[in-house]
Amino acid sequence: MNQPSSGTHTYHTVHVYDGWLYVHSGSEDNLVAPAAPDYDRERSLLKRFDLSQFSGAAFDWTSGEVVAVGLRNMVGYTRDPSGALFGVVNGIDDLQYEGADVHLNNPGEALLRIEPGRAYGYPFCFTAQHIEAASGAVTPGTQLATALRDFDNDASDMIAAVPAERQIALAVANAAKRVGDRRMANEQQSSAHEVSPATRANRKTHCPK
């Protein structure tokens, strides 16, 4: 009940795990930041509801526990045999970077390991798939600051190497052709930060690393 359903992402993927109802809500449109400079906590996120508290009436959306934010449109998610949660996220359309139109080859559609309390970048950052920057080719999987007409963004790029313990595999099929025989699950990576005051402060100057 009261779940946002306006705009272009009106459908919501639902799963039940360990007595919890998990529900993803996509962004209202391609690129919106209703809570800027913070992350939206009503859409572009994954919530869960305790089924032991189900009384026969629909859960109110606002009562759900936020699992993770910054997820533009997670069209599918599931758990592996160990119980780890993974999701496939559709990225931002019509991207620009360093003043150039890069939307034909970007963003990378990310396969993310979803961990409670973390933020995954949207709308402030996107996952690079094939970017030729002034400084050279950007490694696929790098988080870059979103640039789109009429979008005021105070984030900046984080092109530093991703620590191994924070790596998240990316599924970027087209990029595989450009990186030769690299193993895509190991070489194309993204990451995220915990949703905390310190993280929010960092996100204002850097995309998640």
Structure description:
The chain has helices at 175-178, 184-187, 197-203; strands spanning 14-17, 20-25, 45-50, 65-69, 74-79, 85-89, 96-97, 100-101, 110-114, 118-119, 125-127, 131-133, 136-138, 143-145, 168-169, 189-190, 193-194. By secondary structure, it is mainly β. It has one domain (14-203). A 6-stranded mixed beta sheet has the order 1-2-3-4-10-17, with no helix packed on it. It has a 3-stranded antiparallel beta sheet with strand order 5-6-9, with no helix packed on it. Strands 7-8 form a two-stranded antiparallel ribbon. It is elongated. Residues 158-206 have low confidence and may be disordered.
Quick rundown:
The relative contact order is 0.15. 7% of the residues lie in helices and 29% in strands. The protein has one domain (14-203).
Major β-sheet profile:
6 strands, mixed
> What is the global morphology?
elongated
Strand order of the largest sheet: 1-2-3-4-10-17
Structure summary, number of beta strands:
17
What class, by secondary structure content?
A: mainly beta
For the termini, the CA-CA separation is: 35 Å
- Give the radius of gyration: 17 Å
Give the fraction of residues assigned to helices: under 10%
